[in-house]
Amino acid sequence: MNDQNLLLDVLAAGEARRESRRAMLKMAGTAGLAVAGASMLAACDDSGDFPGNPPPAPAPTPTPTPTPAAITDGDVLNFALNLEYLEAQFYLFAATGAGLPNDALTGAGTQGAVTGGRQVNFTDPLVAAYAREIANDERQHVLFLRSALGAARVAQPAIDIGSAANGAFSNAARAAGLVGAGVAFDPYANDENFLLAAYIFEDVGVTAYKGASPLLTNKTFLEAAAGLLAAEAYHAGLVRTVLYRKGIATPALIEATESISTARDSLDGATDLDQGVRATTSNGVTRSNIVPTDASGLAYSRSAGQVLNIVYLNRMAVTAGGFFPAGVNGTIRSSAAS
């Protein structure tokens, strides 16, 4: 009895072990199928193709567009300093026969020399006095900006204010139709030529400061720029007034301002940002045009690129030319493609 019970217990235990092994094998088989299925799906491409067909080329990763460096207040002031170097040198040579002192020319970038420039033999004492006043103002503008910028100030770049037939003044006058091919325009020859040369710069200076003012974030610098803009506007109004007064007796002077205005507008884009000093007459009443304004009576603005179009004497995107043969110093260097 005991032997029989023991045998039954052994058989029952063996059957239990076999059932356990069958269950384990079944589970292992199911898991293997799942792994194989997953591997097969992973090997298929999106269209259900199996290995053997080449996979589709991966979509190219777009190259991120580099973010242009933000223009700083220092960049704007250094751009203005380049223009002030140009104006100061022209007026100082015309009024006194000498330019800025050497210690007012140093700074970052390549320092350049001034080509041309000499004292004008003024015949009108008022024009001579105006020239000396503006020359002193422009010199102070240079010194002020250099002081405000400190060690970050740029050096004076190479400047062409000469009277050679292939120089900047002659090319500008030729573009305006004031001289013919191969003929020189000498801004130092007489009072009238000096005024027309000054007219080239002053109107541009006003539009440059107005265009730059929204770029300034520091209120102290903004106030300084407003003061510079006001001074340049006074200078421009003075030059335009004298040209208008002299043009009453010599109408060719007034027409010359219109020609220069048209030439400047041909360089800085399609928008009309310029006017000469020609008066308008309506119902027998004459109105002068000393202050060039838009329909709202506001002075025009030019971007830095448009200003460089004019001083480089080029309507394309370039980094040198005209009154700055090697370009200006600083971050803002390229004219606009207009």
Automatic annotation (TrEMBL):
InterPro entries: Ferritin-like_SF, Pigment-catalase-like, TAT_signal. SUPFAM superfamilies: Ferritin-like. Residues 46-68 are annotated as: Disordered. It comes from the Bacteria. Residues 52-67 have a biased composition (Pro residues). This is Ferritin-like domain-containing protein. It comes from Sphingomonas qomolangmaensis. The lineage of its organism: Bacteria, Pseudomonadati, Pseudomonadota, Alphaproteobacteria, Sphingomonadales.
